[in-house]
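Lab notebook: predicted structure, single chain.

Context: the supervisor wants predicted structures on file for every construct in the current expression panel, including those that have not yet been purified. This is the next one on the list. No modifications to the sequence; it matches the entry in the shared construct table.
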Amino acid sequence: MRTDIHKINEQTPHQELTEGLMMFAGGTSKYFNTGEWRTRTPILNKDLCRDCLVCSMVCPDSSIPLKDGERVEFDYDHCKGCGICAKACPFYAIEMKEGK
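Prediction complete. Output recorded below exactly as produced.
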């Protein structure tokens, strides 16, 4: 029997659970709000941003989504506040603020 992690919840019948609650589907942070771990938050200064998209390419959590070739707001549900985007931005358009 195959059980996907995103389908298990409190209402899942015991017959659908695997021995040891082993998961056979690929894991993904899409289903977990890992942004709760964040101690620093990236803030975008839109006046400085030139939409070069470097920040989106270097984000290890894919927390800077793109829409129609332009960056959109940070995905704070998954951003862990590592600051890689701020360091990579050639226009200094991203500032890291303490806290969530």
